[in-house]
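note to self: the first set is below, dont mix up w the second
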Amino acid sequence: MSLCGSVEFDGERPVRGGMRRPLGRPMGDRTGFLRKPRETTMGKTSGKTTPRERIVVVANRLPVHRARQGGTGPWKESPGGLATALIPIVRRTRALWLGWTGSTGKVVRPFSHNGIQISPLRISASEADAYYDGFSNRTIWPLYHDAIRTPEFHREWWPLYVEVNRRFAQKAASLLRPHDLVWVNDYHLQLVPRFLRELRPDVRTGFFLHVPFPPNELFAYLPWRREILEGLLGADLVGFQTTAGAQNFVRCAKEYTTADGTGMTLHFGGRTIHAGSFPVSVDAGWFGETADSPLTVRRANEIRQNLGRNRKLILSVDRLDYTKGIDARLRAFGDLLQRRKASVNDCVLVQIAVPSRELLGEYGEIRSRVEQLVGRINGEHSVPGRVAVHFFRRSFPREELSAYYRTADVMLVTPFRDGMNLVAKEYVASRTNHTGVLILSEFAGAARELRQAILVNPYDIDGMTNALHTALHMEPRDARMRMAFMRSTVRRHDVYHWANEFLRELRRGTAR
């Protein structure tokens, strides 16, 4: 989830075995074709993207939305994790983005926005109810997130999920040129690869799942499990955030379809399909440069002044979703104050929660629960001039988030389940002075890479309370060393590295 390399450590870069070497060009810049538009592109030695090859991104939503409710006003870039990850890639490669506007109003003609070529697809109100609100977000979303909420299986949703997926494939097929690469994204469009292969078998198709893929024990609940798997098997490459996700997919494909194979390679319908792990990341260079810009430094100082210069800032940034564990972390922070391990004079929690799917019942419930917890904690622990929790139920621009990342002494990222969680990586990328402590759920995909974070079980309130106490009192040297290594990881494996690896494997047809 997102809303909006190398390590500089005492002038040198720590490496394995205690050896050091002088700072130089960030290692992430070595990843190749996506670094600069007029350098090598798509792994080739030509200048910009060649006419023979173009990337067509297919996603449920466009990377932009209307500035005002009701589908009016100018277009603005969307803050979601998928858009945040893909927008830099689309700009660098001059790709085409096919998606839904999010509105059920009139048809929008193709347009360009800040260098992004956009082809909108219209979805009717009835389709949105069944395909998006229903099957995607009340069946697949909870099922793929460990059934934190009980998935709903309504057979009337399925035909419209199929129909919308078919129309995405038909629209994509009409836009494709020979030699194009198609990049289908996320759980809303799991049938698109199969439909697209039926229409355009001449193009290579990759599918990337941004959320977890569940183990067989959960996936087996889905009445349409074979159809979903056969939809995904229409791709040449199926990518996941973690190795566990890729392994779960391969096991399920062998169990519920006629696919067979070894390792991460499957054979199905006379074709070879590869599965692999490609952990998504952030534009680490942008976050680092923005964090150090004069405007961000000035804004960070204002935030620090407003919250109290002698107080440590604990920051959380999430969509307001039941999978993010916001209520559990609030209880942990309340316990920290209740047990007098900290006071409102010592620290303050800022929770930024971006509204999400609020028309769905369970999202209204989590909003009410979070607001009640914030009210209780503030009622019990705030004093004049010192509020315990600042709760913002709105999205912030990336530049404003950067100022908060720069200011925060502790970043608290504790989802119950998350495919990756880009907020954790955005925070690390923004800590150019190597201060700050990251508390991270062990059930977020990012925990596989950011091992130097304080890893917690978000279901363990006492454990999170103790982690907060540890983070607030961590020795500066220990905090700097941890952050230095995490920054090395994020800068080396940034969003361009992720895209390079996925697209290279898609072109080659062999997953790592």
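second set (the one i keep forgetting abt)
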Amino acid sequence: MGDPELDKWAAWLLHRRDADDPEQRARTLEHLLPIRDRVLDGARIRPGDVVLDVGSGDGLIAFGALDRVGSDGRVVASDLSADLVDASRSIAEELGASDRVSFVVARAEDLEPIKSASVDVVTTRSVLIYVHDKEAAFRAFNNLILSLNSQ
């Protein structure tokens, strides 16, 4: 079941969560899509925005944000798992969205690879529970948000 060479996060998300069962994967996605939509609705994304999805995993939130940012916006998908970033990059290629999504391997508490004041919106789902230094993560998020830095 799955690729034994994947890190623990990628192995769980890409294979163990649904036991590589296509029917279970479809049921899981059916359950997650309304949650994704609530996250995106709460983010108040506008056309042209740059959205950073922290802990993007397999891209559920990140790829969902693409329609909302429109053709002039873009999405940055970050995750601490290089394996998940690679998997998301492959999904972006399959979707023909590689030109509108960029990928970064980074921890939520240390988003240094992303330029300060370069995003309009930060999203995250089911990530902060695993972050030990939540205060550092929120400082990192705030450092990246353009409107907070331009006031």
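remember for set 2: The mean pLDDT is 93.
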